[in-house]
Amino acid sequence: MGKCNWVAVAAAAAAVVILAVAGRVEGRSGYGKEVTAAHISGKVLCQDCNQGWAEWIDGKPIKGAKVAVTCMDCRGRVVYHGSDFTDEKGEFELKVVRQRAYGKAIEVEDCTVRLEDSSPDSTCNVRTDFGGGRSGVRPHDPSAFQSGLVKYTVGPFYFTPPDCDYPDASNPLGDGDDD
């Protein structure tokens, strides 16, 4: 291929990238008027301090954990609440339909996603705030846009075994003397 052909290919590739970025920016700045629903997805994992580093940091998926989304208006009133249970991969997907409540549209950025209840895994059932699962997190920075839909990803959220949540305080001095 000659030098001119490479320049033409490079120019075409640059044009495609510029158009893609422009389309994404346009979609992001104008999505508030077009969006009819939002999907919020994530994972719930067991973070076991009794395991090695690789197993601890990656976590084990928890099936059947309940995750909820609650949206409030500017006066602190709940305007939307929904929940989902995790699948065998520990994944959940919550859908928030953009509707009007008290005269204003629900904004997903005003919602909080959190773990609800305890884990169905009795060996890993203490909610942690690692990833914001206990206190909740607000969706931000959409991960994808589609016609009428914006997607967010949160978490992962974690549970931990009971013996990992509370340190052993039976010997606070750690001197090996149990007396």
Automatic annotation (TrEMBL):
GO cellular component labels: cell periphery
Keyword Signal on entry: yes
Residues making up the signal peptide according to the UniProt record: 1-27
Alphabetical keyword list: Signal
PANTHER family reported for this sequence: OS01G0164075 PROTEIN, POLLEN OLE E 1 ALLERGEN AND EXTENSIN FAMILY PROTEIN
Protein name: Pollen Ole e 1 allergen and extensin family protein
Organism taxonomic ancestry: Eukaryota, Viridiplantae, Streptophyta, Embryophyta, Tracheophyta
